[in-house]
Known about the structure:
The structure is a single chain. The protein has 78 residues and is mainly alpha-helical. It has one domain. It has four helices and no strands. α2 (20-27) packs across α3. It is globular and about 30 Å long. The termini are far apart. The mean pLDDT is 93.
Amino acid sequence: GGFVDEKxxxxxxxxxxxxxxxxxxxxxSKTQYHKPCMFFCQKCxxxxxxxxxxFYGNKAVCPCYNNWKxxxxxxxxx
Length: 78
């Protein structure tokens, strides 16, 4: 599978809002900051309808998730 497959599987619209909790549990499963990770991931998931693959990084397949910044300009989505 190449980048195109990943974009279809993980890109915008790939996740239904009802799937956000389970997708974010996967995304946040390796962090020691589980609660804040889940909070922001679910916020981002509901807005972007995608959660990147893996436990961190890989955000390019989900541009909305990647580009949503905090007021300070840092990444909002884990």
